[in-house]
Predict the structure.
Amino acid sequence: MNTLVAVDLDRTMIFSAAALGFEVDDSVVCVEMFDGAPLSYMTTTAAESLRTLTADAVVVPTTTRTIEQFQRISLPGAPWRFSITSNGGNILVDGEPDRAWRSSFSDIDLDGVREELTRRTRGDWVLKRRTADDLFCYLVVEPTAVPPQFLADWSSWCAARGWNVSQQGRKIYTMPNVVCKSRAVAEVLTRCIDDGILDDGALTLAAGDGALDAEMLIAADRSIRPRHGELEAKNFRHDGLVVTTAAGGLAGEEILTWLHAETAREVDGTIRASAASNKARG
């Protein structure tokens, strides 16, 4: 095994009924319940594909969700040796938060940023204010009612202080630059190599749909994004990045097909290199 696959979840691997792009039917399976009702789905094909991918690669679920929100998901392929939540602010090892990694963010000025954000967001266009795992904050808004200059002005204020702003649908995230998926994925890769799970020089693959995934997609050896979401709206492109043909839930299937193919190519290359080495020695 010599491939690490970091996969974003919402709108990349799992989808709400509205985000699927087709009616909920027998072709999908519910992977998350909330308040007694189905919340997130995968196609049955994608669910089986994710499950089988774990046999050939170290799959690392990588999400902006909090630990609690992540643990609601019955994601095919579990249990996970490593998973990443809180946009990289938490690394879970066998389901338990790694305290040393989490403590590395102890000097974040969350209170100061949250106070300024509250001052700037008075009005009924803000439906909810939330803090995630004491690492970052986000608003739930009515998208059509967001003041025209809010995102630009707030982004400018945050950028000067080492924070960034991203809107994904009804949520506007305010995130410290140091809390990012790519840093957490790099840490997991190092640990896998140190533990002998992966070889030095292992292939890294990544998949994601939002601006908070962009750095992770760039850092990976090869990556893929769906033809929907925030990165699609920004027409995000990068060397080594593939864009799906499909959108919605079918894009999840296409992403997993691509991840399988890239992993198989790496496995095949490793086998051929080993065989050549053995032949040369013989």
In short: The longest strand covers residues 28-34.
